[in-house]
Amino acid sequence: MLPTAHQLHLRIPADASTWAERIEAACAVVERWFPGEQLLTANVPRDHAPPLALADRRAFLKKALKTRTRWLSLTNDKPGDGYLTVGGKIGSAAPAQFELGCIVPAQPWERSEQLLAALGDALQAQTGDLTPIGTLLRLRAIQLAGARVPDPLAGTLPRLRFCLAQDQDAPEQPPMLAWLNYWSEPTCRFLGFPDPRRDERLQQLSWRTPGGAWLVKPTAQPLDLDRPGHLEAVAWMYERFPRLGPRPRPAAG
User: Fold this and answer.
1) Separation CA 9–CA 120 (nearest Å)
2) pTM of the predicted structure, to 2 decimals
3) Domains of the chain: residue spans and CATH
4) What does the alpha-carbon distance between residue 142 and residue 220 come to, in Å, rounded to a whole number?
5) Euclidean distance between CA atoms 172 and 184, whole angstroms
6) In a structure prediction context, what are the per-residue pLDDT tens digits for the chain, which is 253 residues long?
């Protein structure tokens, strides 16, 4: 995986009647974003199987519908700095949701912010996110592993349940806070955003997408937990939105 790549994550309904069209729409967005590139090579989930050149991507997607997890990896077959891919699968613990990832070469963060919004709208995604990879890995370690992580911030941010291992409280619930957050209209209603009285500062950093979702940012600059004010912004958002990220459930009885 390219250390300089931007990695976008989105979650969409696994509804079979619209799934292939949504993935095709996402591929079309990426191809328009990077003129001249085509996502017409499919990796095959079998040991030593060569990549498959696609003559008809829509037919390939319809065939993938017949598999249990719909495991998918479409690329432009350009290893190195020009590598693009769209892929994902249905998680075993969340059969109603398809987890999609998109890896693109590093570009100005403003461009990736716009790309996240365009992909979210094209996919009619429930949620989506993008965070600088170093910060993302640190957040995951702190919030999903908790006290087992020797990090001074481990007691500052809330512990979360790992959504792929345990189900979310609702399909529209974001799995955790990112730097760039794509929140669909159902997600905004679930979280209670925006509230004109409490979210004025947050709305100044965020914007409405053409599809009616929100692109929400806790900080203006790329999230870095060691920068002054960034940790406080993340902690405030978890306090402001108690439904943000699935929290551990109380022990029974």
Assistant:
1) 10
2) 0.93
3) 6-125 (3.30.310), 133-240 (no CATH)
4) 22
5) 8
6) 445 799 999 999 999 999 999 999 999 999 999 999 999 999 987 777 899 999 999 999 999 999 999 999 999 999 888 999 999 999 776 778 999 999 999 999 999 999 999 999 999 999 999 999 999 999 998 888 755 656 777 778 998 987 554 567 888 999 999 999 999 999 999 999 999 999 999 999 999 999 999 999 999 999 999 999 999 999 999 999 999 999 887 766 5
